[in-house]
Write a structure and sequence with these properties.
By secondary structure, the protein is α/β, with parallel strands linked by helices. It has helices spanning about 25-35, 55-65, 65-75, 115, 120-135, 140-150, 165-175, 235-245, and strands at about 1-5, 40-45, 75-80, 95, 105, 180-185, 190-195, 200-205, 215-220, 225-230. A five-stranded mixed beta sheet has the order 3-2-1-9-10. It has a five-stranded mixed beta sheet with strand order 4-5-6-8-7, with helices on one face. The structure holds manganese (II) ion (MN).
């Protein structure tokens, strides 16, 4: 079975407080292109798909009617992230075993940290965001906020606090039971292989499709062969133009 894993879209209401930054049709065309080209059997959205810390589901739906219709018309799987934990059609995690007995485990990954993994931590976070929304017109206060949650680098927009060994050790704990663990949440596209408990183990992170990025994982669940997708709105546009030129 070929699966496509995408995560951390943070679909919002397209105001300047959000980070989605995708045109609905452009995103749908990109997903459909990959489904066709690679014969994808199942698309799995691994959490933080809807930015429900900042907006209600209805607000998001109203701002993205084509995309939300596309989601409901297709048989996609949605896994809960810390930003859309209240979503009523998503599951906590996904586990399946292939015909060779290899176990593949997929979850968003916020349970690795207290702030996002506990009810109290998330409530504090949500309260902070509601305050921030009120002051988002102030450049001065927003500058302070961006200094606090500083990105590790300006190109990949990975928050400093997410680039830690914490998620690697959490993945390693899960790998005691599974052969392949796929997390998201950190917005950092990565893959690690290791021999652990006498078996080859793999930890992948599907990165993020926010801020105009298109990152994810394509995987054949039988062979566990995979490919990391790393594109941007611009690179997609450029390759389309090249195709037209030919
Ligand atoms: Mn998250």
């Amino acid at each position: 079975m070929n699966i496509l894993i995408l995560s951390d879209l943070h679909i919002d209401t397209c105001d300047n407080f959000g980070t989605f930054q995708w045109d609905e049709m452009e995103l749908i065309m990109q997903i459909e292109g990959i489904r066709d080209t690679f014969n994808v059997d199942k698309v799995i959205f691994n959490g933080d798909i809807f930015e429900m810390q900042k907006y209600t589901y209805d607000e998001i739906k109203k701002a993205n009617p084509i995309l939300m219709r596309y989601f409901s018309d297709n048989n996609f799987i949605f896994i809960k992230g810390n930003h859309d934990i209240v979503c009523d059609f998503s599951v906590e995690h996904l586990q399946f075993t292939n015909s060779h007995g290899q176990s593949i485990y997929i979850e968003h990954g916020h349970n690795a940290d207290w702030f996002n993994g506990s009810r109290l931590g998330r409530a504090i976070g949500k309260f902070g965001i509601s305050l921030l929304k009120k002051v988002s017109h102030s450049r001065y206060l927003m500058d302070i906020y961006f200094k606090i949650v500083a990105f590790e680098d300006q190109i990949n927009h990975i928050p400093k606090s997410y680039n830690t060994i914490k998620y690697l050790s959490y993945a390693l704990k899960l790998l005691k039971e599974h052969d392949m663990v796929i997390l998201s949440h950190t917005h950092k596209l990565e893959s690690h292989h290791t021999y652990y408990l006498n078996k080859k183990k793999r930890y992948l992170n599907s990165g993020s499709c926010s801020l105009g990025r298109f990152q994810g994982i394509l995987m054949d669940t039988e062979t566990l062969k995979y490919e990391l997708i790393k594109e941007t709105k611009e690179s997609i546009k450029n390759s389309r133009q090249m195709a037209y030129a030919i």
